[in-house]
Design brief:
The complex is a heterodimer. Chain A has a single domain, classed as Peroxisomal Thiolase, Chain A, domain 1. A six-stranded mixed sheet of chain A has the order 6-5-7-8-2-17, sandwiched between helices. Chain A is an alpha/beta fold. In chain A, helix 2 (60-74) packs across helix 3 (99-107). Chain A is built from nine helices and 17 strands. Chain B has one domain (3-76): ACP-like (Non-ribosomal Peptide Synthetase Peptidyl Carrier Protein, Chain A, Orthogonal Bundle), CATH 1.10.1200.10. Chain B has helices at residues 3-13, 36-50, 56-60, 65-76. The longest helix of chain B has 15 residues, at 36-50. The radius of gyration of chain B is 11 Å and the shape is globular. Classes of the chains: A alpha/beta, B mainly alpha. Chain A binds chain B through residues 38, 41-42, 45-46, 162, 225, 237-240, 242-243, 246-247, 278, 282, 286, and chain B through 15-16, 35-37, 39-41, 43-44, 47-48, 53-56, 59.
Protein backbone atom coordinates (compact mmCIF):
# COMPACT_ATOMS: atom_id res chain seq x y z
CA UNK A 1 0.00 0.00 0.00
CA UNK A 2 1.30 3.45 -0.86
CA UNK A 3 0.22 5.18 2.34
CA UNK A 4 2.23 7.85 4.09
CA UNK A 5 2.14 10.21 7.01
CA UNK A 6 4.47 13.14 6.40
CA UNK A 7 5.04 15.92 8.89
CA UNK A 8 7.69 18.39 7.78
CA UNK A 9 6.42 19.57 4.39
CA UNK A 10 3.71 22.07 3.58
CA UNK A 11 2.33 24.05 0.68
CA UNK A 12 3.12 27.75 1.06
CA UNK A 13 1.67 29.12 -2.15
CA UNK A 14 -0.49 28.41 -5.19
CA UNK A 15 -1.07 30.03 -8.55
CA UNK A 16 -3.50 28.85 -11.21
CA UNK A 17 -3.71 29.85 -14.86
CA UNK A 18 -6.88 29.00 -16.77
CA UNK A 19 -7.63 29.29 -20.49
CA UNK A 20 -7.82 32.58 -22.35
CA UNK A 21 -10.85 31.80 -24.51
CA UNK A 22 -14.35 31.05 -23.36
CA UNK A 23 -16.45 28.34 -25.00
CA UNK A 24 -20.12 28.19 -24.11
CA UNK A 25 -22.27 25.11 -24.53
CA UNK A 26 -25.19 27.33 -25.62
CA UNK A 27 -23.16 28.41 -28.65
CA UNK A 28 -22.39 24.83 -29.65
CA UNK A 29 -25.84 23.21 -29.82
CA UNK A 30 -25.61 22.58 -33.56
CA UNK A 31 -22.15 21.04 -33.26
CA UNK A 32 -23.40 18.72 -30.55
CA UNK A 33 -26.36 17.29 -32.44
CA UNK A 34 -28.82 20.18 -32.46
CA UNK A 35 -30.97 18.85 -29.63
CA UNK A 36 -31.43 21.93 -27.46
CA UNK A 37 -33.56 20.10 -24.88
CA UNK A 38 -30.85 17.48 -24.41
CA UNK A 39 -28.19 20.18 -24.03
CA UNK A 40 -30.32 21.83 -21.33
CA UNK A 41 -30.65 18.51 -19.51
CA UNK A 42 -26.88 17.97 -19.67
CA UNK A 43 -26.23 21.46 -18.38
CA UNK A 44 -28.60 21.03 -15.51
CA UNK A 45 -27.85 17.47 -14.43
CA UNK A 46 -24.16 16.99 -15.16
CA UNK A 47 -23.29 20.61 -14.40
CA UNK A 48 -21.93 21.94 -17.69
CA UNK A 49 -22.02 25.46 -19.04
CA UNK A 50 -18.80 27.06 -20.17
CA UNK A 51 -15.15 26.23 -20.21
CA UNK A 52 -11.95 28.25 -20.69
CA UNK A 53 -9.45 26.93 -23.20
CA UNK A 54 -6.29 28.05 -24.97
CA UNK A 55 -5.69 28.11 -28.74
CA UNK A 56 -3.71 25.33 -30.40
CA UNK A 57 -0.51 27.37 -30.28
CA UNK A 58 -0.51 27.39 -26.47
CA UNK A 59 0.55 24.38 -24.39
CA UNK A 60 0.65 23.24 -20.79
CA UNK A 61 4.26 24.46 -20.60
CA UNK A 62 3.12 27.99 -21.49
CA UNK A 63 0.35 28.02 -18.91
CA UNK A 64 2.61 26.31 -16.36
CA UNK A 65 5.29 28.92 -16.90
CA UNK A 66 2.86 31.77 -16.30
CA UNK A 67 1.62 30.05 -13.14
CA UNK A 68 5.15 29.35 -11.91
CA UNK A 69 6.31 32.93 -12.50
CA UNK A 70 3.22 34.30 -10.74
CA UNK A 71 3.78 32.01 -7.78
CA UNK A 72 7.49 32.71 -7.42
CA UNK A 73 6.83 36.46 -7.59
CA UNK A 74 3.93 36.36 -5.10
CA UNK A 75 5.84 34.16 -2.69
CA UNK A 76 9.08 36.14 -3.13
CA UNK A 77 11.06 33.05 -4.03
CA UNK A 78 14.01 33.27 -6.42
CA UNK A 79 14.58 30.52 -9.02
CA UNK A 80 17.85 29.68 -7.25
CA UNK A 81 15.87 28.70 -4.18
CA UNK A 82 13.95 25.91 -5.97
CA UNK A 83 15.50 22.48 -5.41
CA UNK A 84 13.26 20.46 -7.68
CA UNK A 85 10.63 20.99 -10.36
CA UNK A 86 7.94 18.36 -10.95
CA UNK A 87 5.58 18.80 -13.93
CA UNK A 88 2.45 16.68 -13.92
CA UNK A 89 1.01 16.42 -17.42
CA UNK A 90 -0.42 14.08 -20.03
CA UNK A 91 -0.21 16.71 -22.78
CA UNK A 92 3.51 17.43 -22.91
CA UNK A 93 5.13 19.58 -25.56
CA UNK A 94 7.12 16.55 -26.76
CA UNK A 95 7.68 12.90 -25.98
CA UNK A 96 11.16 14.06 -25.17
CA UNK A 97 12.41 16.26 -23.58
CA UNK A 98 9.94 16.35 -20.68
CA UNK A 99 7.97 19.47 -19.76
CA UNK A 100 9.90 19.90 -16.52
CA UNK A 101 13.18 20.15 -18.44
CA UNK A 102 11.73 22.72 -20.82
CA UNK A 103 10.27 24.80 -17.98
CA UNK A 104 13.54 24.43 -16.05
CA UNK A 105 15.19 26.25 -18.96
CA UNK A 106 12.53 28.93 -19.28
CA UNK A 107 12.65 29.75 -15.57
CA UNK A 108 16.45 29.81 -15.50
CA UNK A 109 16.63 27.27 -12.69
CA UNK A 110 20.14 26.32 -11.57
CA UNK A 111 21.68 23.04 -12.65
CA UNK A 112 21.38 21.86 -9.06
CA UNK A 113 17.58 21.82 -9.48
CA UNK A 114 16.12 18.41 -10.33
CA UNK A 115 13.40 18.22 -12.98
CA UNK A 116 11.04 15.42 -14.05
CA UNK A 117 7.50 14.83 -15.29
CA UNK A 118 4.75 12.72 -13.84
CA UNK A 119 2.50 11.25 -16.52
CA UNK A 120 -0.87 11.25 -14.78
CA UNK A 121 -4.13 13.11 -15.22
CA UNK A 122 -6.84 13.70 -12.68
CA UNK A 123 -5.03 11.91 -9.85
CA UNK A 124 -1.80 13.70 -10.77
CA UNK A 125 -1.87 16.67 -8.41
CA UNK A 126 -2.23 14.49 -5.33
CA UNK A 127 0.38 12.01 -6.60
CA UNK A 128 2.65 15.00 -7.36
CA UNK A 129 2.03 16.57 -3.97
CA UNK A 130 2.98 13.27 -2.31
CA UNK A 131 6.24 13.12 -4.28
CA UNK A 132 7.09 16.78 -3.63
CA UNK A 133 6.35 16.35 0.09
CA UNK A 134 8.53 13.23 0.26
CA UNK A 135 11.38 15.05 -1.43
CA UNK A 136 11.14 17.81 1.15
CA UNK A 137 10.62 15.52 4.14
CA UNK A 138 13.43 13.16 3.37
CA UNK A 139 14.99 13.89 0.03
CA UNK A 140 17.20 16.82 0.70
CA UNK A 141 14.95 19.47 -0.79
CA UNK A 142 14.01 22.70 0.94
CA UNK A 143 11.61 23.78 -1.75
CA UNK A 144 9.88 21.89 -4.57
CA UNK A 145 7.92 23.58 -7.33
CA UNK A 146 5.03 21.35 -8.39
CA UNK A 147 3.35 22.30 -11.67
CA UNK A 148 0.30 20.43 -12.95
CA UNK A 149 -1.54 21.13 -16.18
CA UNK A 150 -3.02 19.90 -19.42
CA UNK A 151 -4.53 21.11 -22.66
CA UNK A 152 -7.24 18.43 -22.74
CA UNK A 153 -9.38 20.54 -25.09
CA UNK A 154 -6.69 19.84 -27.71
CA UNK A 155 -7.08 16.06 -27.35
CA UNK A 156 -10.80 15.75 -28.08
CA UNK A 157 -12.67 15.85 -31.36
CA UNK A 158 -14.88 18.94 -31.64
CA UNK A 159 -17.72 16.74 -32.88
CA UNK A 160 -17.56 14.24 -30.02
CA UNK A 161 -20.48 15.20 -27.80
CA UNK A 162 -19.40 12.75 -25.11
CA UNK A 163 -16.19 14.61 -24.27
CA UNK A 164 -15.80 17.91 -26.13
CA UNK A 165 -18.06 19.96 -23.82
CA UNK A 166 -16.27 18.75 -20.72
CA UNK A 167 -12.67 19.83 -20.81
CA UNK A 168 -11.01 23.14 -20.08
CA UNK A 169 -7.30 23.96 -20.19
CA UNK A 170 -5.34 25.03 -17.15
CA UNK A 171 -2.09 24.75 -15.23
CA UNK A 172 -1.37 25.36 -11.58
CA UNK A 173 1.85 25.82 -9.65
CA UNK A 174 2.33 24.92 -5.99
CA UNK A 175 5.26 25.61 -3.72
CA UNK A 176 6.03 22.80 -1.28
CA UNK A 177 8.47 23.84 1.42
CA UNK A 178 10.18 22.37 4.44
CA UNK A 179 8.77 23.52 7.75
CA UNK A 180 11.54 25.47 9.51
CA UNK A 181 13.22 23.74 12.42
CA UNK A 182 11.54 24.61 15.67
CA UNK A 183 8.09 25.02 14.12
CA UNK A 184 5.43 22.42 14.84
CA UNK A 185 4.75 19.43 12.60
CA UNK A 186 2.06 19.69 9.95
CA UNK A 187 0.77 16.15 9.41
CA UNK A 188 -0.22 15.15 5.88
CA UNK A 189 -1.76 11.74 5.22
CA UNK A 190 -1.55 10.34 1.69
CA UNK A 191 -2.86 7.26 -0.07
CA UNK A 192 -2.14 6.40 -3.70
CA UNK A 193 -3.94 3.70 -5.66
CA UNK A 194 -4.44 2.35 -9.15
CA UNK A 195 -6.41 -0.21 -11.16
CA UNK A 196 -4.84 -1.12 -14.45
CA UNK A 197 -7.85 -3.24 -15.44
CA UNK A 198 -9.49 0.09 -16.23
CA UNK A 199 -6.73 1.36 -18.48
CA UNK A 200 -9.05 1.45 -21.51
CA UNK A 201 -11.65 3.56 -19.72
CA UNK A 202 -10.08 6.93 -20.53
CA UNK A 203 -7.69 6.74 -23.43
CA UNK A 204 -6.06 8.25 -26.48
CA UNK A 205 -5.39 4.98 -28.33
CA UNK A 206 -3.14 6.28 -31.12
CA UNK A 207 -0.33 8.78 -31.32
CA UNK A 208 2.38 7.21 -29.19
CA UNK A 209 4.15 3.88 -29.64
CA UNK A 210 1.47 1.20 -29.24
CA UNK A 211 -0.41 2.72 -32.20
CA UNK A 212 1.90 5.16 -33.98
CA UNK A 213 0.53 8.08 -35.94
CA UNK A 214 -0.50 6.89 -39.39
CA UNK A 215 -3.08 8.26 -41.78
CA UNK A 216 -5.44 5.51 -40.57
CA UNK A 217 -5.03 6.72 -37.00
CA UNK A 218 -6.21 10.15 -38.09
CA UNK A 219 -9.37 9.02 -39.89
CA UNK A 220 -12.59 10.20 -38.34
CA UNK A 221 -15.23 7.63 -37.45
CA UNK A 222 -18.70 8.06 -35.97
CA UNK A 223 -19.83 5.79 -33.14
CA UNK A 224 -23.36 4.45 -32.54
CA UNK A 225 -24.42 7.77 -30.97
CA UNK A 226 -23.07 9.82 -33.84
CA UNK A 227 -20.02 11.06 -31.95
CA UNK A 228 -17.05 11.59 -34.23
CA UNK A 229 -13.45 10.84 -33.26
CA UNK A 230 -10.14 9.53 -34.57
CA UNK A 231 -7.99 6.90 -32.87
CA UNK A 232 -5.76 9.76 -31.70
CA UNK A 233 -8.59 11.60 -29.95
CA UNK A 234 -9.29 11.24 -26.24
CA UNK A 235 -12.24 8.93 -25.61
CA UNK A 236 -13.95 8.17 -22.34
CA UNK A 237 -16.33 5.40 -21.30
CA UNK A 238 -18.51 7.71 -19.22
CA UNK A 239 -20.63 5.12 -17.45
CA UNK A 240 -17.58 3.10 -16.40
CA UNK A 241 -15.69 6.14 -15.11
CA UNK A 242 -18.78 7.06 -13.13
CA UNK A 243 -19.16 3.64 -11.51
CA UNK A 244 -15.41 3.47 -10.82
CA UNK A 245 -15.56 6.83 -9.07
CA UNK A 246 -18.52 5.86 -6.89
CA UNK A 247 -16.99 2.49 -6.07
CA UNK A 248 -13.49 3.65 -5.10
CA UNK A 249 -13.53 7.27 -3.96
CA UNK A 250 -15.97 7.21 -1.03
CA UNK A 251 -14.25 4.24 0.68
CA UNK A 252 -10.82 5.83 0.06
CA UNK A 253 -11.94 9.06 1.73
CA UNK A 254 -13.45 7.13 4.64
CA UNK A 255 -10.23 5.17 5.14
CA UNK A 256 -8.23 8.39 5.01
CA UNK A 257 -10.39 10.07 7.66
CA UNK A 258 -10.00 7.01 9.86
CA UNK A 259 -6.22 7.10 9.58
CA UNK A 260 -6.22 10.82 10.35
CA UNK A 261 -8.69 10.19 13.18
CA UNK A 262 -10.98 12.93 11.95
CA UNK A 263 -14.73 13.19 11.83
CA UNK A 264 -16.09 14.43 8.47
CA UNK A 265 -17.21 17.66 10.18
CA UNK A 266 -13.65 18.37 11.31
CA UNK A 267 -12.59 18.90 7.72
CA UNK A 268 -12.98 22.49 6.52
CA UNK A 269 -13.31 21.67 2.83
CA UNK A 270 -13.19 18.70 0.49
CA UNK A 271 -11.29 19.39 -2.71
CA UNK A 272 -12.36 16.67 -5.12
CA UNK A 273 -11.10 16.55 -8.67
CA UNK A 274 -13.71 18.60 -10.49
CA UNK A 275 -14.88 16.00 -12.98
CA UNK A 276 -18.44 17.38 -13.01
CA UNK A 277 -21.01 18.48 -10.45
CA UNK A 278 -23.06 15.31 -10.86
CA UNK A 279 -20.36 12.88 -9.78
CA UNK A 280 -19.04 15.08 -6.96
CA UNK A 281 -22.53 15.51 -5.58
CA UNK A 282 -22.95 11.72 -5.66
CA UNK A 283 -19.66 11.21 -3.79
CA UNK A 284 -20.60 13.86 -1.22
CA UNK A 285 -24.04 12.37 -0.66
CA UNK A 286 -22.57 8.89 -0.32
CA UNK A 287 -20.16 10.16 2.34
CA UNK A 288 -22.86 12.34 3.96
CA UNK A 289 -20.59 15.37 3.77
CA UNK A 290 -21.88 18.87 4.52
CA UNK A 291 -22.44 20.09 0.95
CA UNK A 292 -21.33 23.63 1.73
CA UNK A 293 -17.83 22.23 2.31
CA UNK A 294 -17.66 20.47 -1.05
CA UNK A 295 -16.98 22.82 -3.96
CA UNK A 296 -18.50 21.31 -7.10
CA UNK A 297 -19.08 24.10 -9.58
CA UNK A 298 -15.70 24.43 -11.26
CA UNK A 299 -16.69 22.43 -14.35
CA UNK A 300 -19.60 24.66 -15.25
CA UNK A 301 -17.34 27.71 -15.08
CA UNK A 302 -13.99 26.38 -16.30
CA UNK A 303 -14.43 22.82 -17.54
CA UNK A 304 -12.72 19.67 -16.28
CA UNK A 305 -9.13 20.85 -15.83
CA UNK A 306 -7.39 17.52 -15.30
CA UNK A 307 -4.61 17.61 -12.67
CA UNK A 308 -4.96 21.38 -12.31
CA UNK A 309 -8.52 21.15 -11.06
CA UNK A 310 -7.77 20.61 -7.37
CA UNK A 311 -5.40 23.60 -7.02
CA UNK A 312 -7.68 25.63 -9.32
CA UNK A 313 -10.59 24.95 -6.98
CA UNK A 314 -8.52 26.07 -4.00
CA UNK A 315 -7.59 29.29 -5.79
CA UNK A 316 -11.07 30.00 -7.14
CA UNK A 317 -13.16 29.08 -4.12
CA UNK A 318 -10.96 29.22 -1.02
CA UNK A 319 -8.47 31.99 -1.85
CA UNK A 320 -9.29 34.50 0.88
CA UNK A 321 -9.66 31.85 3.57
CA UNK A 322 -6.40 30.14 2.64
CA UNK A 323 -4.53 33.41 2.75
CA UNK A 324 -6.08 34.40 6.08
CA UNK A 325 -5.50 31.24 8.06
CA UNK A 326 -5.08 27.48 8.11
CA UNK A 327 -7.64 25.05 6.69
CA UNK A 328 -7.84 21.29 7.21
CA UNK A 329 -8.54 19.84 3.78
CA UNK A 330 -9.22 16.49 2.18
CA UNK A 331 -8.03 16.16 -1.43
CA UNK A 332 -9.14 13.40 -3.79
CA UNK A 333 -8.00 13.04 -7.38
CA UNK A 334 -9.37 10.21 -9.55
CA UNK A 335 -9.49 9.29 -13.21
CA UNK A 336 -7.34 8.12 -16.07
CA UNK A 337 -5.28 5.03 -15.37
CA UNK A 338 -7.41 4.18 -13.61
CA UNK A 339 -5.66 6.02 -10.84
CA UNK A 340 -6.76 7.71 -7.63
CA UNK A 341 -5.16 9.37 -4.64
CA UNK A 342 -6.37 10.97 -1.46
CA UNK A 343 -4.68 13.29 1.01
CA UNK A 344 -5.54 15.01 4.26
CA UNK A 345 -3.51 18.18 4.61
CA UNK A 346 -3.41 21.54 6.34
CA UNK A 347 -2.98 24.51 4.00
CA UNK A 348 -2.56 28.15 4.91
CA UNK A 349 -2.00 30.87 5.62
CA UNK A 350 -0.66 30.87 2.05
CA UNK A 351 1.68 33.56 0.75
CA UNK A 352 0.03 33.25 -2.67
CA UNK A 353 -3.28 31.96 -3.97
CA UNK A 354 -4.14 33.44 -7.36
CA UNK A 355 -6.22 32.49 -10.37
CA UNK A 356 -5.63 34.29 -13.67
CA UNK A 357 -6.38 33.71 -17.32
CA UNK A 358 -3.55 32.84 -19.68
CA UNK A 359 -2.11 35.90 -21.39
CA UNK A 360 0.49 35.63 -24.13
CA UNK B 1 -37.57 -7.13 -3.74
CA UNK B 2 -40.63 -5.82 -5.53
CA UNK B 3 -40.72 -4.77 -9.15
CA UNK B 4 -43.26 -2.06 -8.33
CA UNK B 5 -40.81 -0.41 -5.96
CA UNK B 6 -38.04 -0.82 -8.52
CA UNK B 7 -40.19 0.94 -11.12
CA UNK B 8 -40.80 3.79 -8.67
CA UNK B 9 -37.06 4.18 -8.08
CA UNK B 10 -36.52 4.02 -11.84
CA UNK B 11 -39.10 6.73 -12.56
CA UNK B 12 -37.69 8.95 -9.79
CA UNK B 13 -34.17 8.61 -11.08
CA UNK B 14 -34.87 9.88 -14.57
CA UNK B 15 -36.05 13.41 -15.09
CA UNK B 16 -39.17 13.95 -17.15
CA UNK B 17 -40.84 10.58 -16.71
CA UNK B 18 -44.46 10.79 -15.57
CA UNK B 19 -44.93 8.42 -12.60
CA UNK B 20 -47.01 5.39 -13.53
CA UNK B 21 -46.08 5.37 -17.23
CA UNK B 22 -43.34 2.73 -16.96
CA UNK B 23 -44.35 -0.95 -16.97
CA UNK B 24 -42.29 -4.14 -16.53
CA UNK B 25 -42.51 -4.84 -20.27
CA UNK B 26 -41.55 -1.30 -21.31
CA UNK B 27 -38.51 -1.49 -23.61
CA UNK B 28 -35.91 0.97 -22.28
CA UNK B 29 -35.10 2.30 -25.72
CA UNK B 30 -38.69 3.42 -26.30
CA UNK B 31 -38.48 5.91 -23.46
CA UNK B 32 -37.82 9.39 -24.91
CA UNK B 33 -35.75 10.27 -21.83
CA UNK B 34 -33.44 7.26 -22.24
CA UNK B 35 -30.03 8.80 -22.99
CA UNK B 36 -26.50 8.72 -21.60
CA UNK B 37 -27.57 10.89 -18.69
CA UNK B 38 -30.42 8.52 -17.83
CA UNK B 39 -27.88 5.70 -17.89
CA UNK B 40 -25.76 7.43 -15.24
CA UNK B 41 -28.83 8.16 -13.12
CA UNK B 42 -29.88 4.50 -13.25
CA UNK B 43 -26.37 3.30 -12.36
CA UNK B 44 -26.42 5.64 -9.36
CA UNK B 45 -29.96 4.59 -8.39
CA UNK B 46 -29.10 0.88 -8.49
CA UNK B 47 -26.03 1.55 -6.36
CA UNK B 48 -27.80 3.72 -3.80
CA UNK B 49 -31.10 1.82 -3.53
CA UNK B 50 -29.88 -1.75 -3.96
CA UNK B 51 -26.23 -1.55 -2.95
CA UNK B 52 -24.96 -3.30 -6.08
CA UNK B 53 -23.02 -2.06 -9.07
CA UNK B 54 -24.03 -2.61 -12.66
CA UNK B 55 -21.84 -1.76 -15.63
CA UNK B 56 -22.84 0.45 -18.54
CA UNK B 57 -22.69 -2.62 -20.77
CA UNK B 58 -25.08 -4.62 -18.56
CA UNK B 59 -27.63 -1.79 -18.60
CA UNK B 60 -27.32 -1.44 -22.38
CA UNK B 61 -27.91 -5.20 -22.74
CA UNK B 62 -31.17 -5.02 -20.76
CA UNK B 63 -34.12 -4.69 -23.14
CA UNK B 64 -37.01 -4.05 -20.75
CA UNK B 65 -37.57 -2.82 -17.21
CA UNK B 66 -38.14 -6.47 -16.29
CA UNK B 67 -34.68 -7.34 -17.65
CA UNK B 68 -33.13 -4.54 -15.62
CA UNK B 69 -34.93 -5.69 -12.49
CA UNK B 70 -33.77 -9.27 -13.07
CA UNK B 71 -30.20 -8.02 -13.47
CA UNK B 72 -30.35 -6.26 -10.10
CA UNK B 73 -31.93 -9.33 -8.45
CA UNK B 74 -29.12 -11.53 -9.82
CA UNK B 75 -26.50 -9.16 -8.49
CA UNK B 76 -28.07 -9.08 -5.09
CA UNK B 77 -27.83 -12.88 -5.08
Amino acid sequence: MAEALLKRARITGLATVVGSERKRLDDEVAQFGGDRAQIERLKKSIGLNERWVVPASVTAVDMGEQAARQLLADAAVAPTQVDALIFVTQTPDHFQPCNAAILHGHLGLPTTTAAFDVNLGCSGFVYGLYLASLMVENGGCQRVLLVAGDTLSHTVNARDRSVAPLFGDAAAAALVEAIPAGEADSPSWFSLQADGRGSDTIKQPAGAFREPVTSAALEEHADAEGNVRTRANLRMMGADVFTFTLREVPPAVEALLQRAQLQPTQVDAYLFHQANRYVISNIARRLRLPLDRVPMDMVEHYGNQSSASIPATACAVLGPRLQAGSMRLVLAGFGVGLSWATACVAWGPLRACSLNHFAK
Amino acid sequence: MEIETFIQHFENAIEGITPGTVKPQTPLRTLPQWDSLALLNILAMIDIEYGVQATGMEIQNSKTIQDLFALVQRKKG
